[in-house]
Amino acid sequence: MERKRGVDGRFVAVRRVRERLLAVLADPSSDAMDEVALAHKAGIGVDVLDDVLDEGLVREAMARRGEAIRPEEMAEVDRAMLARAREGHVGAARLLYARMAARDEADDGSLPSVEELEEMVALLRGD
Question: CA-CA distance, 117 to 126, in Å (whole number)?
Fold first, then answer.
C-alpha cells in the first residue's frame, strides 16, 4: 500500500488521505478554500494534496454533492491550473498533463498543446 507523510510527520495510507480529502471537497463550504486551507482541513500537507488531488477525485466529490461538472466550469479550472503551472507549481502542471492526455478529441482550445506545456516547463526549469 502506497504511503505519504502527513502534516504531523506520520505516514498515512493514500486511500485514507483520498477519503478525507473527498469528504472535505464534497462539502460546499470548501469551494472558497485555497490549497493550504483544503490541506489543513483534510489534515495533510500541501505537498500531499498536490500528489493526491486529481480530476477524478474532484468529479467524485461533485457526484457526492449531486452536482455534475459543466464543461465551462472545467475550462475555468483548467485556466486556473494553467496559471498556477506557469508560476512553477508542479502539481498544477501534472494535473494539466493528465487533462491533456484525457482530452484527445475534445479540443476546445482552452488549454495549450502538450508541446506548449513542455516548453513552459522547460522555461520554468531554466533549461
Answer: 14
Buried b (16+ CB within 10 A) or exposed e, 17-53: bbebbbebbbeeebeeeeeeebbbbbbbbbebbbbbb
* Rounded (10°) angle between helices 90-102 and 55-65: 80
Is pLDDT at 88 greater than 60 in this prediction? Answer: yes
Residue 100 has pLDDT above 50, yes or no: yes
Segment 26-40 shows an average pLDDT of 85
Per-residue model confidence (pLDDT) at position 80: 85
In the numeric block, which cell numbers belong to residue 33?
A: 478554500
